[in-house]
Structures are given as structure tokens and as C-alpha cells.
Amino acid sequence: MNRIKEELFKQCSQYVEECIHTAQLAIKDARESANDDTKSSAGDKFETGREMMQQEIDRNRKQLEEAKKMKLALEQIESYQPSEIIHAGSLVITNYGKFYICISRGQIQVEGTNYFAISPISPIGLKLMRQKMGYEFDFNGKDFKIESIF
Q1: What is the pLDDT of residues 29-46, one digit of tens each?
Q2: What does pTM read for this prediction?
């Protein structure tokens, strides 16, 4: 199971790095567009274009900040420490799916099996955190049972 957890962690880390890179590139492109617009525009058109580029930069800065928060969350995971209690870094097997508690990444396939990378503060993550094997709970009208924790 450690090999699977290592792969899940690796894929989550790659996802975060891609998010950071994409946001940084988009910010750079928007700044360059704003600078180019400055050289070729005048009057109201200039102000409108500049405002649109600033909004684009602000939106991408927010995405960058979110990606950096995810990176920080990943850095704090003790993913290979076995525990009877679910914590960030746990791989949880339930009767309705396999969940890796780390960041909100969504579905990841490892060795032909689907896993869901979820944040500890997501709705289902909150239900799972600090629970033990055998714990049962209702989520979205389904009766979940924790079968294993790795």
C-alpha cells in the first residue's frame, strides 16, 4: 500500500506544480499584454483593456495562492506513517470508494484502480478525519463504512 500512497502523493504534487506553473505563466502573459496595450492604445480603450488585464492578473494571483496553499498542505503530510486514526496522508478504503486524504485533486488512477484525492476539509473529508476502521456514516444518502486505513 505504501507504493500506492507514494504514487498518489507524487501525482498530487505534480498537479500542484502544474497549477503553480500555469498561474505564473498566465500572470506573466497578462502583464505583457497590458504593457503591449499601453504602447498601442489611447483614451477609454486603453483604460478598458488595462482594467481587463488587471482583472486577469488578479484572478490568476488567486489561483496561484490556492495552489501554494495546496503545496503547503502536501508538505505537511506524513503520508507513510501508519495510523489507526485517519489523518492527512491516510489512504482510506470504504465500501463506496478509496480516498486519499491530502488535497482536492479528484480522481486518480493507480495500477488500474480509481482513488479520490480529497481535502481534509471537504465535506467527505470532514466525515472521515479522526475516525477509525469500522466507523459508519451517512453521506449524500449512502451508508459508508470504513473498511481499511493505510
Answers
A1: 888 877 776 555 555 555
A2: 0.84
